[in-house]
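User: I'm new to structure prediction. If I give you an amino acid sequence, what do you actually give back? Let's try with this one:
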Amino acid sequence: MANKLPVKDILAAVDMGAKSVWKELDAESKKGVSFWLMNRYASSVAGKREKQELAVLKTNEYYNKNYMVVSSHPELQWQLLCLCGNTGKIEFHKWQGLKSNVTNMTGKFEKILTKIYPERKTDEIELIAKMSTEKEIKQLIEDHGLDVNSKFTCEYCNTSYTREKTLFAHLCEKKRRALQKDEKRVQLGFYAFNQFYKRSMGSKKDKTYEEFCKSPYYNSFVKFGSFLNNVKPLYPEKYVDYVVTSGVKLEQWCKEELYERYAIELIKKEDVTTALERSVLTMTEWAKENPPAVWNHYFNLVTTNRAVYHIKDGKISPWVVLNSTSGKQMLDKFNEEQLKMIYHIVDPEHWALKFKRQTKDLELAKQIIKESRL
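Assistant: Good question. You get back a string of structure tokens that encode the predicted 3D arrangement of the chain. For your 374 residues, that looks like this:
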């Protein structure tokens, strides 16, 4: 929910002509600024008649003129609003009530205005309907190609248009979700959605994509899908099961700390063969990205920051780093901050004890490292 700024604070900034304030607001605070309401306040200033008339004139000339054109540019709206004030001192702005402009078409217009301005709040839609004449709203409907009786109707939200090309360009939330079905991040989110219901809710039947689209958690799961697509975790399916059964809230699934905890547990428990294979694969991919480098020169040539990233994410295993001469030499190049970042992965005490207990695995690792000339 947007952090709604007090009206008096907004008006104070407007009176002082504080155009730069907009850039200092965070995204949520910006959403809380109702430019429609500011229209009424800015034009109402206490004082002599000349002062009041000037406020109305400036608001109409600077702010109201071409309002519909600039309504999609909030920073510009803020600049224009500051031009309406800019008196150099904080004024008293009395709220001017609206004269009733309700007709039997108002309810219908409000529904159509909601389709034109889906991001507007209900009170703002009502205000637009009351402040506008029937002729103005009909012109607005025509400009947007809307017509409730038209045959060109969106199959997802039932919004109707007079022109087919307008319908083609139309993109409501339901249509957007349907069109992005095949995107990788959406598919990963959809998979996680199904796993959540299976592992946590005991569901035996897969949810359909349509059910996923209608879920109030759609955006959160798609965001998690983007995280999976960007991070490319070790064994993605295992990681999905891990977060689903972790008891952690969905909003926290994209936290780096959660993935690190999963990666540490996996790295310290996995089979040596799997760890070696993944490390060699990572080195091979690195070499392809950095020709003419050879994969077994990884420890000698890779940047320390890239190596930290690979070790943290489990792409390069301590089985290789701690048992190869070039791997240890690479660690000597790390600064204190970098060593701190990977310490929980290459924890010397843990791996010394593990190597001591798993002598056959240690011999296998050393043999492969020697043959690979690492």
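You can read the tokens as a compact description of the fold. Here is one thing that stands out. Strands lie at 152-153, 160-161.
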